[in-house]
UniProtKB/TrEMBL annotation:
Residues 148-233 form the Quercetin 2,3-dioxygenase C-terminal cupin domain. PANTHER family: QUERCETIN 2,3-DIOXYGENASE. Its cofactor is Fe cation. The gene is yhhW_1. Residues 11-120 form the Pirin N-terminal domain. The keyword Iron applies. The keyword Zinc does not apply. InterPro entries: Pirin (IPR012093), Pirin_N_dom (IPR003829), Quercetinase_C (IPR041602), RmlC-like_jellyroll (IPR014710), RmlC_Cupin_sf (IPR011051). Transmembrane segments: none annotated. Its EC number is 1.13.11.24. This is Quercetin 2,3-dioxygenase. Binds 1 Fe cation per subunit.
Length: 243
């Protein structure tokens, strides 16, 4: 098993007043040649948006964009005609494909919104743009892995155009469980939302990240009550990005 450890305070940071953002991988003005992506996982931003503020309308293409609210309400509008609000306990996905424009705003005037913004390269370019969001509250599990994203339309959670699986792990202190990867050639990027855990010989604290690959499974042990996001993705970039 190979791993790469990213301590929380080693992330890129940008505070624009209305937006306070921490970047696990290179993004905007934060450029780190050693932290451009993990396989097809391109962006992992930990964002806080001030009351009533947000991202104005801007374009994307050929990217699977996932938002996971941690607190507050996030309002989404896009050029496909979608208007929606996502909240904690939900997950949103937008396949940018051939091109889409969207905006994301803090719905509330009295509290900030915190959310994870995640970008994944799709397996092929030029797919038809689409939007979806789902509640993940009903399928929430304690001391087990809760799948919230996959390549399969019939699975729980949302689906994307990539052989990727995302799981939330809500573990009580002392609980441990093996995670088995779904596909050969994939790796997992583990990101601690709260608490602390041990994976292999590495101890992870809040907002630490650990990339894991060249293994079929690994053990996750909660050192206290802990919530972790496990993002399993292909480690090899798709052909259209190699040209």
């Amino acid at each position: 098993m190979k791993t790469i450890y990213h301590k929380a305070d080693s992330r890129g940071h940008a505070n624009h007043g209305w937006l306070n953002s921490y970047h696990t991988f290179s993004f905007a003005n934060y450029q780190n040649p050693e932290r451009v992506h993990f396989g097809v996982l391109r962006v992992l931003n930990d964002d806080s948006v001030s009351k009533g503020m947000g991202f104005g309308t801007h374009p994307h293409r050929d990217m699977e964009i996932i938002s996971i609210p941690l607190s507050g309400d996030l309002e989404h509008k896009d050029s496909m005609g979608t208007t929606a609000v996502i909240r904690k306990g939900e997950i949103q996905v937008m396949s940018a494909g051939t091109g889409v424009q969207h905006s994301e705003y803090n719905k509330n005037k009295d509290e900030e919104v915190k959310f994870l913004q995640i970008w994944v390269f799709p397996r092929e370019a030029g797919v038809e743009p689409r939007y979806d969001q789902k509640s993940i509250v009903e399928s929430a599990k304690i001391n087990d892995f809760q799948q919230i994203l996959s390549p399969n339309k019939e699975d729980d959670g949302v689906w994307i155009h990539q052989d990727a699986w995302f799981n939330l792990a809500n573990f009580e202190k002392g609980h441990a469980k093996d995670y088995t990867l779904n596909k050969n050639g994939n790796g997992v990027y583990a990101f601690v939302l709260k608490g602390s855990a041990k994976i292999g010989d590495q101890i992870l604290n809040e907002r630490d990240g650990l990339g894991i690959w060249d293994t079929k499974s690994f053990n996750v042990e909660a050192l206290e009550d802990t919530e972790i996001l496990l993002m399993e993705v292909p480690m090899e970039l798709p052909d259209y990005l190699k040209k």
